Model the fold of this input.
Amino acid sequence: MHPKLFVKREQTAKIYCNHYKKPSNTEFHFHSHIELYLVEEGEVDVWVGTRYRRLRAGDMAVMLSYDAHRYKVVGDARITYLIVPPSMCGELGSKALSLPFITECE
Done:
């Protein structure tokens, strides 16, 4: 399965934050914006590139520019995510992370 460019996201030039009590699943997609995805309650399966992790309450995934990613909610969950345009991040968007997940297990 090939990830798709999320064109709508590319048209956003502001920081965007949203909370979902019932988040939806996504297909693999990518965009230039940096995305922080925090699981507040429940569990969400997250893929960033070829890496996979089941995130639980308090865990976070970090996607840098053009990282292909997707989410699959496991049961009920509540999440918050922050989207930051690359123009506000300087060189951060061109970096790579050794591990895109922040969990209590790390």
